[in-house]
Amino acid sequence: MEGLPTTTQAERRWRSKNLQTSKPSLVMAFFSCVAWLYVAGRLWQDAENRTLLSNLLKKNIEQRPKVLTVEDKLMVLGCKDLERRIVEVEMDLTLAKSQGYLKHQLRQSESSSEQKLLAVIGVYTGFGSHLKRNTFRGSWMPKGDALKKLEERGVVIRFVIGRSANRGDSLDRNIDEENRKTKDFLILEGHEEAQEELPKKVKLFFSTAVQNWDAEFYIKVDDNIDIDLEGLIGLLERRRGQDSAYIGCMKSGEVVAEEGRPWYEPEWWKFGDEKSYFRHASGSLLILTKNLARYININSASLKTYAHDDISVGSWIMGVQATYIDDNRLCCSSIRQGFHPF
Predict the structure, then answer these.
(1) Cβ distance 226 to 338 under 8 Å?
(2) Residues 279-302 pLDDT 10s
(3) Within 13 Å and on the Cβ side, how many CA atoms surround 114?
(4) What average pLDDT score do residues 99-120 get?
(5) For residue 339, which of 245, 249, 279 has the smallest C-alpha distance?
């Protein structure tokens, strides 16, 4: 028994106490390790996310079009004078439009007829003017075969009218029926016939006429005057080949600013303190050469209309290089007495 080792009670107590104190330390160490792994994983994941977002942002920035001003683009391209050339081309285009030149319209007119007409005469009429039209057809305006022969001489005459506000009603049907018999109407499908719409009617008439017929002159005539047709043809024959001619009884006058008075102009304030109209041809009979009628057709969408058709036409012509020809034989008093040829 003496040779066997013996353990005292104090040693056993020390070992038991040491074992009890090491268990919490192991647990704490384990949780610390887990926490460290969790934090390291989150940091790694956040780093990957940041890298991914950074790459996406960089890619979007590279793909996003760079916003440059026109000035920047001109500097990058190294063609600073391009801006000047663009301005010059725009000015040339505006000048060409003002002179009535349009490539596809020239081809159309050249192919539409071999012989160029002398004139297209549009006689304004309305739904209630049937008796006036019959009077015209029996006086200075030919009808039937005589009208066709006049067209062979190069002069086309048509009554100009729009459509009723109630499309397809009896007013429209009566005009269609009359036109089937006489074949002497130019019906403006896009125009609503009304007294207050006359300025728009004159714009649409010149635009439609220059598209339908290739002529030297385009003439607007009211249906309350009589003219000497042969005298008018003689006047036009003498003016053949004259570009940019604006012919009529030239006048100007007071701008009526009081509402309710005849010839009231709602936009009177645009005509200055003197309240006087600019020089323009009377609306009873006015004549435009082909390039001026073409100018109206090309720019019809932007041309301003006023309360009266003759003022409207005068304002359009005032903005181009036109030759004003004042002929007092085209004034109302002379016309009613009969137009006398040169």
Answers:
(1) yes
(2) 888 888 999 999 999 999 998 888
(3) 1
(4) 58
(5) 249
Residue 219, SS3? strand
Nearest residue to 320 (alpha-carbon basis) of 299, 335, 341, 342? 299
Residue 283's alpha-carbon distances to 123, 154, 242, 250, in angstroms, are 12, 24, 21, 10
For residues 291 and 278, the answer to whether their CB atoms sit within 8 Å is no
Q: What are the pLDDT digits (tens) for 8-41?
A: 555 555 555 555 556 677 777 777 777 777 766 6
DSSP output for 273-332: TTTBPPSEEEEEEEEEEHHHHHHHHHTTTT----SSHHHHHHHHHHTS--EEEE-GGGSH
Give Cα 16 to chain centroid, integer Å: 103
185 close to 194: Cβ distance less than 8 angstroms: no
pLDDT at position 225 is 85
Predicted pLDDT at 330: 84
The residues that bridge with 247 in the sheet, in sequence order, are 287, 325
Question: What does pTM read for this prediction?
Answer: 0.66
For residue 339, give the DSSP letter: P
Q: Are 83 and 73 in contact (CB under 8 A)?
A: no
How is 30-97 classified by DSSP, letter by letter?
A: HHHHHHHHHHHHHHHHHHHHHHHHHHHHHHHHHHSPPP--HHHHHHHHT-TTHHHHHHHHHHHHHHHH
β 155-163/185-192 pair status: parallel
316-332 pLDDT tens trace: 998 888 999 998 888 86
Give residue 32's Cα distance to chain centre: 78
CA distance 78 to 337: 70
DSSP type of residue 256: B
> Which of helix, strand or coil describes residue 262?
coil
